[in-house]
Design goal:
6-stranded parallel β-sheet; 17 strands; disordered C terminus
């Protein structure tokens, strides 16, 4: 049956965070695993908090693990997060505890898995709107695979028509009175068991029709080890495909701020300096060629940062665009090349990070590194370069986790092949239309600096087009 209009009802999103992560193999609940600088559950809370259709967020957390969620609430970043309660021994008991906590007043309630951090505004909106007319709503997507039914002894017994099959997701939404009535009847069944809440309504209050709204492939559930890598890549894609910021937004984010660029003498670093100045920043450029600054020398890095801070009284952003690329077989690389590559590309990045943190902590700023597409897979002739750039990505992600408590963001730019002196020296002249311009990379870097992102690998593509499939994103760049 359908119910009367409920457009005036409040909407409460209940985050079901009762899992323990046994399949992933971690010693902490899977929803507390950090991806892209935040725990999975915080990404989920953020998505629900940012939805204009949600009035309140309630978290049902694994017993004994409330402190991390309380810490998230204490930041004040999620004002709709009002209550944090312990969940039950299983999904159904957790839902029942949430129903009890919501009281007697009629509301729309969305039950959402804590480990589905990619739920978007469209899905949330569609669920809430569906509850204007219906008492229950599920979220689902078509199945790309053929689904088969097997017998208890492992033999195929049926192949249901794929056109009628869907893969269930969350949110699952209800009028509170409808889901409460279904659970009250379910408690009378001594054999009651269900893997989700729509099943409870379907079985025990079959007169309630359950509407279905479209989910999305990106609204994945992080339950297996491979899901962590896929989720990390999806967060990367969300950053990479963000719209280019307007000029006034860039000015607002940079005007009067202090930007320190290591490797600012030429190439991408020089373009970052030029663009940052255009948008009103105080820019300090350091390089071997112009200022005799060697990033593998701690004192050089310390002196550079100190000079910038003394000149303006602050450092908001530190950009590390330094890099050394020597193309050769490993057996042909001299000791000098081996050590210099590691020192410039990795040790220098470590020293810059260590020396920058005290300044960035004061301004809640950001450190921005640069990697290369070769970080995803080592290639012959690039062994030293690829290894150090891969290490830099891991280093960035680790720092993002460490520096969350300091309010400092850390990201890394992964540009497509870019026209720079470093590349020309290594590969000679190449067709201009096959390379990114250094300015395009610089603009993407500025947009990243003034964003709230942390722990992200930001792909900058030559054609500027968004990456619209996970499969494409997981392919190696050329």
């Amino acid at each position: 049956m359908t119910s009367s209009s409920g457009s005036d009802l409040r909407t409460v999103a209940v985050v079901l965070a009762g899992g323990v992560g046994a399949r992933i193999g971690f010693n902490l609940p899977k929803q507390l695993i950090k991806i892209a600088g935040k725990s999975v559950v915080e990404h989920t809370i953020e998505a629900l908090n940012d939805s204009s259709d949600v009035d309140e967020v309630l978290v049902m957390m694994t017993p004994g693990h409330l402190d991390p969620i309380l810490a998230i609430r204490s930041t004040g970043k999620y004002p709709k997060l009002t209550r944090i309660l312990e969940g039950g021994s299983d999904r159904n008991q957790t839902t029942q505890l949430a129903i009890e906590a919501l009281g007697d007043d009629e509301v729309k309630v969305l039950f959402h898995d804590a480990v589905r951090p990619f739920v978007d505004n469209r899905i949330i909106h569609d669920c809430v709107v569906a509850l204007d007319e219906h008492s229950a709503v599920d979220t689902a997507i078509p199945s790309a695979d053929t689904i088969i039914e097997v017998s208890d002894d492992g033999f195929l017994i049926d192949v249901p028509p794929r056109s009628k099959l869907r893969r269930g997701q969350t949110p699952q939404g209800f009028r509170l009175s409808a889901i409460r009535a279904a659970y009250e009847k379910a408690q009378l069944d001594p054999n009651f068991t269900a893997t989700d809440d729509c099943t409870v309504v379907l079985r025990y209050t079959p007169d309630v029709r359950i509407a279905v709204v479209a989910g999305s492939d990106e609204n994945m559930k992080v339950t297996e080890p491979i899901d962590i890598a896929m989720a990390d890549k999806l967060f990367q894609l969300r950053s990479a495909t963000a719209k280019e910021l307007a000029e006034e937004t860039r000015v607002a984010g940079l005007e009067g701020k202090t930007v320190v660029v290591f490797g600012g003498g030429y190439g991408i670093g020089a373009e970052v300096c030029a663009v940052a100045k255009d948008f009103g920043a105080h820019v300090f450029s350091y390089s071997r060629s112009e200022t005799k600054t060697h990033v593998q020398n701690r004192q050089d890095v310390r002196d550079a940062l100190k000079a910038a801070a003394e000149a303006t009284g602050r450092i908001d952003y530190v950009v590390n665009s330094t890099g050394l690329l020597a193309v050769s077989r490993l057996e042909d690389a001299s000791d000098d090349i081996v050590y210099e590559t590691i020192d410039v590309n990795l040790v220098g990045s470590i020293l810059i990070a260590q020396e920058s943190l005290p300044y960035l902590r004061e301004t809640a700023g950001q450190l921005l590194n640069f990697t290369s597409s070769s970080y995803t897979r080592g290639r012959g002739g690039y062994s030293l370069y690829s290894a150090t750039k891969a290490a830099l990505v891991n280093f960035t992600q680790a720092l993002a986790d460490e520096w969350v408590v300091d309010g400092v963001r850390v990201n890394v730019i992964n540009p497509d092949r870019t026209r720079t002196p470093l590349r020309t020296k290594a590969f000679g002249n190449e067709p201009a239309d096959t390379l990114l311009s250094a300015r395009a990379v610089a603009l993407a870097s500025i947009d990243t600096l003034i964003s709230s992102a942390t722990g992200h690998v930001i792909d900058v593509r030559r054609d500027g087009s968004p990456v619209d499939s996970l499969a494409e994103a997981l392919e190696d760049d050329d």
